[in-house]
Structure formats: C-alpha cells, structure tokens
From TrEMBL:
This is 2-methylisocitrate lyase. Belongs to the isocitrate lyase/PEP mutase superfamily. Methylisocitrate lyase family. It comes from the Bacteria. The keyword Acetylation does not apply. InterPro entries: ICL/PEPM, Isocitrate_lyase_ph_CS, PrpB, Pyrv/PenolPyrv_kinase-like_dom, Pyrv_kinase-like_dom_sf. Pathway: Organic acid metabolism; propanoate degradation. Homotetramer; dimer of dimers. Mg(2+) binds at D86, D88. The keyword Ligase does not apply. GO terms for molecular function: methylisocitrate lyase activity. It is an enzyme of class 4 (lyase).
Length: 298
C-alpha cells in the first residue's frame, strides 16, 4: 500500500519547500478551504481565533483542550494541508499536556506550539504578561515530547520572554527549550529584524515570526524575514479580522438602508462559495446515483 504522509511530515516537507513557510491562520473549516485555494502550504489554528470566533471570548486562557481539538477535527475533515495548532500553555499540568499532544495527533494536527506564560495567559502582544520559570517550561516540553506517539508531530516552543525579560534571558530560555526537545521556536513579539537575527544566531532550531496585525511586531515582508533567517511566517488572524470588518459593514448597511444592495460588492457570490466547497461535484454525484429513472420510483 502506498505510504500516506503523516500531517507532521507534510509540515516538515513544506518547511523545506518555502522560505519562510507562510502559515495561514484559519478560524474554521471553510476558512481553511479558502487558504488552500490561495495556495498556502500550511495552516494554523489560532487560540485567539477559537476563543474569539467560536465562543465570543477574549484570548485569556479560557477555552479548553476539547474546544481546540474539536476545531482541529473539523478543519481536518475539509482540507489535507498540515495544520499547526496553538495549544496555549498546554491546558493543564504534565498529564493534561500529554493528553493535549495525544488528542491533537489523533485529531489530525501536524504540530502544536506551547508557550511559557502562566496558565492565566494573555495575548503575546499585550502588556503585563507573566511567565513560568525556565525549568517549568522545560517540563512542559518534556511532557509534550514524551507523549508524542507519532514522531513527525511538530512540537514548537513559544517564548513570550522577550518583552518581559530581554534578549539574553530569552535566548537562554530558547536554548533550554531546544535542549528539552522542541523542534522549532516561536519568538513572540519581536520588535525588529535585528532582534530576529540576534536570536537566530544563538538558537539551533527553525524560528517562527508572528506577523499578527496591530501588535508589537512590524509587518515585515517575506523577503525581509527570509533575509533575517526566519523559517516560518505566521498570519494568525489576518483573514478573521477582514471577515469581521466586512461582516459588521454588512450588518450595519442592512439595518440602516433596509437592503443589502450597497454591500453586495463585499460578498462572496453563491457561485464562488459553491466552487470552493466542491458543491457541484456533490450535485453531480446526486444526479448520478439517484437520477429519477433509476431511482426508487417515488
Ligand atoms: C498567535 C496568537 O497566539 C493566536 O492565538 O493567534 C496571538 C495572536 C494575536 O493576539 O494577535 C498572540 O500573538 O498571542
Ligand atoms: Mg494564541
């Protein structure tokens, strides 16, 4: 039987094909289909996205392991692309973290990132983040690596230390995380390309840069990031923010004008929606299987 690549293998392959690998945030299954249509090789499920979009909650460590795993399953049912998953602080202590890893693998994720904030976490681009000590984070990584029964599953360690502790301490942390088995490092909230360069020179693992909008990190281009040595460029909520702005405009227009005529240009057409869903193939299948002459006769 032909070997079918595991999601983790697909993510690792994609990392070789594109430098930096652009990773598109998708808040749900249909967004994943849109990102696939646009040609991305890797997708991302944002913790903020799950909290904000699916639950109307802020990104403060309120959603659960199961909330995230459920979303991973749905996305995996819609697309084949490898999915990197935001596991926040791992959803508990050592055994919970181990279960997070196993459940994510079972749900079809390609990898996850786990961060060094305390469980009552905040968005990485907000002030007053609080971190666990280096050794506690090392324990989180060890629990993750130990629980990984599919070896290609990517365990990425995210450090939020830069804003709180400065570059030297951040590098020390990242080195310890790699030593503990992290495959890749997510350097959160860097403020300049120079910071990426300094960090990458000292850390022996592929580094991800978070290009989230309206945060601490300027919106660097892929060529700027490539030049600085960045291997993954993340756009966690870009499409979500755009969807939200468009949706609000549509709601306001309908309410104010009594018709949606003026905002049709903001909308995807029925034809576009159906094409990306593969709707027509389903319809053909219906016709083929259940056409009126060969049917049950009702
Ligand atoms: C990447 C992130 O962890 C997320 O959940 O998407 C957020 C993104 C954001 O709030 O802009 C983060 O950077 O903490
Ligand atoms: Mg997050």
């Amino acid at each position: 039987m032909a070997h079918r690549s595991m999601p983790g293998e697909l993510l690792r392959e994609a990392l070789q094909q594109e430098k930096p690998l652009q990773v598109a945030g998708v808040i749900h299954a249909y967004a994943a289909m849109l990102a696939q249509e646009a040609g991305f090789r890797a997708l991302y499920l944002s913790g903020a996205g799950v909290a904000n979009a699916s639950f109307g909650l802020p990104d403060l460590g309120i959603t659960t392991q199961n909330d995230v795993v459920e979303e991973v399953r749905r996305i995996g049912g819609a697309v084949q692309l490898p999915l990197l998953v935001d596991a926040d602080t791992g959803f508990g202590a050592a055994f919970n973290i181990a279960r997070t890893v196993r459940e994510l693998i079972r749900a079809g994720a390609a990898g996850m990132h786990i961060e060094d904030q305390i469980a009552m976490k905040r968005c990485g681009h907000r002030p007053n983040k609080e971190l666990v000590g280096k050794s506690e984070m090392v324990d989180r990584i060890k629990s993750s690596v130990d629980a990984r029964y599919e070896e290609s599953f990517v365990i990425m360690a995210r450090t939020d230390a830069l804003a709180e502790e400065g570059m030297e301490a951040t590098i020390e942390r990242a080195q310890a995380y790699v030593e503990a088995g992290a495959d890749m490092i997510f350097l959160e909230a860097a403020a300049s390309l120079e910071q990426y360069r300094t960090f990458i020179a000292e850390v022996d693992a592929p580094v991800l840069a978070n290009m989230t909008e309206f945060g601490r990190t300027p919106l660097f281009t892929t060529s700027e990031l490539a030049e600085a040595g960045i291997r993954l460029a993340l756009y966690p909520l870009s499409a979500f923010r755009a969807m939200n702005a468009a949706a609000l405009q549509v709601y306001l227009a309908i309410r104010k004008e009594g018709t949606q005529a003026s905002v049709l240009n903001l909308m995807q057409t029925r034809e576009q929606l159906y094409r990306i869903l593969g709707y027509y193939e389903y319809e053909n299948k219906l016709d083929q299987l259940f056409s009126s002459d060969g049917g049950s006769g009702d």
